Amino acid sequence: MSILEILKYPDPRLKAPADEVKEIDEGIFGLVEDMLETMYAAPGVGLAATQVGRPVRVAVVDIQCRDETRNPMVLVNPEILEGEGEDLMEEGCLSVAEFTSEVKRHYRVTVRATGLNGGTVELQAEGLLARAFQHEIDHLNGILFIDRISPLKRNIYRRKLRKMSNE
Ligand code: ZN
To answer: What SS3 class is residue 36?
Structure first.
């Protein structure tokens, strides 16, 4: 297992939609192990393969990443079947340095994905877990949370980033 480098905005690879996984082979198992290790080391509640420069539809999520009782979830080819309710909550991202913002998401979602054993799973989630699923699935579609905030707030972040890189 190894800790992978996490791409940072504005890396163009974060904007590219990921390809569907056709077969869950050793390569995918290895990627998942590395992604989990990378997520826990960060630490973060989720990580998508696009964030580590691998454009395949794989994401890991664990909203208890800081607890003793870790509960890793692995999503292959995940898609949102249904979303309901509205929820506004502060959000950050391992690929977006030094910035958080309130983002509007569904409060409750139903997600269909393939498990590592190749079977189809349907997951119902609400609150933080639902938010993490939506955030990671966005990554697999080339969308960052800063694409979901107002242009005004996004510009504030861009200016801050320019200032940071000039220091
Ligand atoms: Zn993210």
So the answer is: helix
Whole-angstrom Cα distance, residue 10 to residue 143? 12
The residue with tokens 């190749």 is: 118
**What is the pTM assigned to this prediction?**
0.96
The catalytic position among 5, 33, 136, 167 is 136
Interior CA angle at 63 toward 27 and 93, to 5°?
A: 75
Closest CA to 59 of 72, 75, 71, 37: 75
Cα-to-centroid distance, 124 and ligand 1 (Å): 20
Quote the strand ranges of the chain, DSSP E: 46-48, 58-61, 73-84, 87-93, 96-105, 108-114, 120-126
Q: Is 136 a catalytic residue?
A: yes
The set of long-range contacts for 67-71, using a CB threshold of 8 Å and a minimum separation of 24, is 70/40
Give the pLDDT means over successive 10-residue stretches in the chain (167 positions): 94 98 97 97 96 98 85 96 97 96 97 95 97 98 97 93 86
For Cα atoms 33, 35, 41, give the angle at the middle one, nearest 5 degrees: 105
